Amino acid sequence: MRDYEARTYGERIAGVYEELYGELFDDDAAVERLAALAGDGRALELAIGTGRIALPLKQRGVDVTGIDISEAMVAQLRAKPGGADVPVVMGDFADVGVEGHFDLVFVVFNTLFALTTQDDQVRCFANVARHLTDRGVFVVEAFVPDSTRFTRHQTVGVDSLETDHAHLELSRHNPATQTVDTQHVVLRPGEMDLMARLAGLRLRNRWAGWDEEPFTSESYFHVSVYERVTE
Q1: Cβ contacts of residue 206 below 8 Å, gap of 6+?
Q2: Judging by beta carbons within 10 Å of its beta carbon (0-12, 13-18, 19+), is residue 66 exposed, middle or buried?
Q3: 37 touches 44 (CB < 8 A)
Q4: 69-91 pLDDT per residue, tens
Q5: What is the separation of C-alpha 146 from the centre of its chain, rounded to a whole number of angstroms?
Q6: Reading across the β-sheet that carries 166-174, which strands appear in turn?
Q7: Which residues pair with 66 in a beta bridge?
Q8: Other CB atoms within 10 A of residue 89 CB
Q9: How far lies 78's CA from each of 52, 89, 212, in Å?
Q10: How is residue 58 annotated by DSSP?
């Protein structure tokens, strides 16, 4: 994908990451298993992001360090309770540019595939191996590729559809290079709400029509009522 860099994904999605993926995974099970694997040793998360796994793991008493290249994602981590206490090294996680050795190194949620070349992925594994203790393990969570979901090497999916927003995922598969380019698109009727907020107004009601029908994801129209912010 043109103009895509290692930091692009995190910088673009940081503001909506928790909204899109906050309830998608069984975080409790992941934290339970990772804590057992770490034991009383040190853990390193590659692409720590917003701290979705690292923070509850730290609450379990695990000594967690992270790597991430996106300042926007790490800012989300820092804004959470306890987020300022997690050491984070800024950089490409393929380099594993940290000091010392770890009993657990892990990367979750398909993030390994953010390394878009096989050489980078091989380099990541090699660097991780050099940072593992004798009893250390490297844990990778990743999807199983399914080429059947593509028609003419492309697909559009709806990840979420709510009354006030829709999240679309557009993907294009290149079988020759075994890569998938994906774009996340979040659509909201928020431009009007933003203009209202800038004008000192706020949304009071949003209906699907003049009879005050509830506005839902199936609505073709909306009637939005804004009021002045006085307090």
Answers
A1: 163, 164, 189, 215, 222, 223, 224, 225
A2: buried
A3: no
A4: 989 889 999 999 999 999 999 99
A5: 21
A6: 154-161, 166-174, 179-187
A7: 45, 88
A8: 17
A9: 12, 13, 42
A10: H
The structure tokens 């979420």 sit at 160
Among 114, 163, 153, smallest CA distance to 13 is for 114
Q: Tell me how far apart the alpha carbons of residues 26 and 39 are, in angstroms, rounded to a whole number.
A: 20
The answer to whether 108 and 138 are in contact (CB under 8 A) is: no
Residues 6+ apart with CB under 8 A from 77: 48, 49, 50, 51, 54, 55, 66, 83, 86, 88
**pLDDT of 27-74, one tens digit each?**
888 899 999 999 999 999 999 988 999 999 999 999 999 999 989 889
Which of 114, 95, 80, 84 lies closest to 182 in space, CA to CA? Answer: 114
CA distance 171 to 71: 26
Residues with Cβ < 8 Å from 33, sequence gap 6 or more? Answer: none
Assigned token pair, 63: 């000594």
CA–CA distance, 2 with 108 (Å, rounded to integer): 25
- CA 197/CA 199 separation, integer angstroms: 5
Q: State how far Cα 98 lies from the chain centre.
A: 22
